[in-house]
Structure formats: C-alpha cells, structure tokens
Design brief:
Layout (H helix, E strand, L loop, with lengths): L2 H9 E4 L7 E4 L5 E9 L3 E9 L8 E8 L4 E7 L7 E3 L6 E3 L2 E9 L9 E8 L4 E8 L7 E10 L5 E9 L2 E9 L7 E7 L4 E10 L3 E10 L2 E13 L4 E7 L4 E10 L5 E10 L5 H4 E10 L5 E7 L10 E7 L5 E9 L5 E9 L4 E9 L4 E11 L5 E9 L9 E7 L14 E4 L2 E6 L6 E6 L5 E7 L4 E8 L3 E6 L6 E9 L4 E8 L4
Parallel strand pairs: 27-36
Antiparallel strand pairs: 1-31, 2-30, 3-4, 4-5, 5-6, 7-9, 8-9, 9-10, 10-11, 12-13, 13-14, 14-15, 16-17, 17-18, 18-19, 20-21, 21-22, 22-23, 24-25, 25-26, 26-27, 28-29, 29-30, 31-32, 32-33, 33-36, 34-35, 34-37, 37-38
Amino acid sequence: MSKYSLIAFLFFSVILQSQTPFNKVFDFGYHQQFPTELIVLDSSIVVSGTSLRKNDNSERGMFAVQFSSGGDYIAHTTLEDANDQYTYTDDARDIVQIGSKVFIPNQELAIGSELDSAYSFIASYDLDENSLEYHHIVKDSLNNLYLPWTTALSKTIDNNLVLLMSTGSKDNLGIWLQVLDPYRPNTVIEDFVFHKADSTFHSADLITYSDGYLIIGHYRIQSDPDLRGLFALSIDRDFNIVKEKYFDDQRYFSPYLNATRDREGNIAFVTKDYILLPNLPPFLATRFRALVTQLDENLDIVWQRPFGHHDYQEQGDTYTGIICSHDNDGYILCGSGSLDDDSFTSSIGKVGQDGDSLWLRQLVPLDEEIVASQLYDLCPTPDGHYMVTGYLRPAVAPDSVYLKGWLIKFDEDGHIFNIDSSSSVVRLTEKNLRVFPNPVSDILYIETDDILDATISILDNQGRIIVNEKSLKPSHTYMYPVYDLKDGVYFMRLHDSLGNLQIEKFIVQKTR
C-alpha cells in the first residue's frame, strides 16, 4: 500500500449513494429563456419571465411554465404581440395566485423615439388551461402620467390585485398604485397617485397589510442631485398617508430593491450602497456592495449590514430576492456575488434577525461549460425548504439556446435538496464535502461547507485529465456539466495541503 493510500485510509470516511438533486435546467428551444419570478402552489410550481425566439431580433415575449411539486415539466405557453419595436422587461418579480389563475406583472418597454407607447400590464395565467393573456393594461393620461413602470404586485385580504408603478411627468417621477378586480379585466377599483415638486420617486416594492399598504423605494431631490436616499410610505386602505419616512443617504442605489415582512412586523429589504473614489470621473469612481436593512413597525432603522463582500467593488454583489426564513430566525436571499476574478455567479445566503450573516453559498461552475448564472426570485416551499429561479448561460450554444431557465430547491443551510432524500458525503479531515448525484446524467455537484485548502481533479477511466486541478473554497456549490462526456466510469481526485489523497469513482449515465 502506498504512502498516500494509507493516509487516505486514515483520514477519509466516504459514503456514496445514488440520489436525485432538485435542480432543473429548462428551455423551450428559444434563443433565450430568462426567468425572473416564481410561485410555489399546493401541487405545482409556476415560473415566469421573458423569452426571445431565434431570429427575432430584440422582440421578446413573456412565458409561463408549470412544473409539478417534484419538478417535472407539465406545460408552458407564451404571450407575444405583433410588433417588433418593443421589448418586455421586468422589475417586479412578483406572482399572485387568486383561484385557478396566477397574475404576473410586466411592462412593454418602448425604444428609440416611441417612449410614449410604453405601457405596464398584468397577465393572467390559467393553471388548468395553460393559457396566458392580458388582464390589465396601463397606458393612460391620468394626471399626465408618463411611461408607467411596473415595480410590484400584491393582493388585499379580500383578494383584489394591487399594482404598484413608478410614473409621472418626464421630469418628475412619482408613485402610482391601482387596486384592480381580478375577475374583470381592465377594471380599476381605486387609484392612488403620490408625487412632490422637485422630487423624483422610484417605487420598488409593496407590502400589503390588512389595513393598508407600505411602499418602499428610492428618491432624489432634483435641485440638489447629491441629496438622494430611500423612502418608506405607509398609507391606509382609504389612501390616507399614515407615515412618511426618508433616509437621506446618497449612497443608496439599486433598481432591484426587494422587501419582506416578518412575523414581528419588522421590514427587511436588500439594496446597494456605494462610495465614490477620489480623483476619478464618476463613471469610473463608483464602487458598490450589497446592503440589508431592517425597519421596525415605526419604520425606524433597527440595523444595516453589508452582505456578501463587505468591501466596495466595481460592480458589487447584487441580491434581487429576500424572504423570511421558515423559523422566523432571519432572512433568505438570492442574487449574484462576485468571484476573485471579478466575474459573477449565483449566490444564496441567510441573514439572522440581528443582521449577522449566517451563511453564504455561491454556485460556481467547476469548468467553463457555464460562463454566467443569476438567481432572481425565491419563495418558501410547504415542506420547509426554499425554491429559487434564474438562468444559466452555457459557454457554447450549438443549438442557439443562449440562456436556459434554472430552478433549484435548497434547504435551510443552502444545500441543494435531494428528491430521494439520500446523501453522498465525502469527509475530508472531518470537513464535509458532498458529491452528487452518482450516477450523474446532467450536472455533477460538489458542495463544500468549512473545507480548507482542498483541490479536485476529474479523470476518465484511462487516467486522462478531464478537469485540471481546481481549488475548492468553503461554502461553495461547484457544478460540472457532463453533457459532453460519454457514458462510463470517471474518477474524482481530491487532496488537501496535508497530503491527504482520495480517489472516488462516479458514473456518467445519460441513457437509460
């Protein structure tokens, strides 16, 4: 027995079992599938976003796809218009269920000289019929409003829809909120408009209470460009203003501000803050980082904490989703985080009720088969886990599918949920490292917790290196697509800085 074999025997304990991770990569044969929101229902999951068909230039449609609770594809459909001048986009990332339909906000964004043709809308997706159609279109001259921009959708306790938009004159954006009938298309029950002279308000998210609404967003003073910050506006069901709160700090910035409310009534939201480096022009001087803020019931700041990278970076981490944890002991986030080479990858994490980061997990390609990924929206599942959606961008797209949809389920510690509940654990000097599934048909996962100074290589059954030695970092989930590998036996070689060596066999089995 060799020296390294003996050391491996003494320091490694291995359990390898077959399992099925809840990780779904999907496409409809379009050039792009770009999921931005999801909802978990009693027996199914609905994901929505924008799609771009092949050879359609910039014209994008809206899609809705339904999966079973176990992640099996059920059906999908799209909503498209007849012109080629506009494109769909989405900042709201909300889906609301009422009866057998789910309602999805979006907007058609005009380009060039056609800005006056832009409009916001709500689409309704019939779960039984797999049909997607317009429910409400907002293109209106009420109070001379201009360029309505959808930012949130919610529902009242009596099951009316509540649509939040940013709109106003070209030089004075404000807030526009509509209460809508979910059963009668294009039926407005009530309107609320809020704006102030010399101020620009960009609404970002909406929280609905039994007795009113809370709107959170960004604002700035036009006569003093350096004065900008966040606002929180509380209104009752009759649209009387209960409380206005302004947080005058010009460092706040993020088009993706997202908020949630916990059981104690605290509000948590994630945004960005930034600094300007001296002696540089503004477009080169800005550095960002992600920031989580908690407000109490009086809308006073309880705490603010950076999340992810604490140092300011050229782009900075971007977190687009935040929800309360199942146990109400903190908040779960999703988005993207920066790597050491300034690239970005999908990230999920948890913040405690005191603002401390409890864990952060980055989902990183082990090789260059996947060159970009982003997670956009997440929600809790009835079994105590979480579902998140986003996209993957492969390095090579021979089928012209440039962006693929992505749906993942993970547990309270950020580990990808396995449908058959089995586990595959490699213990390296008492530090957990999970490798799954085995056999693998699409993507091999390597999950680390607090492992340090370990590397991994992948070889074929002839000993040829398929993946050169890669360093493994703590709290990462590495993904290696096996689409280009032939069915058969492969080997994973693991070792650490102490000389401990482990070789594990796994099987690629794409055909059954």
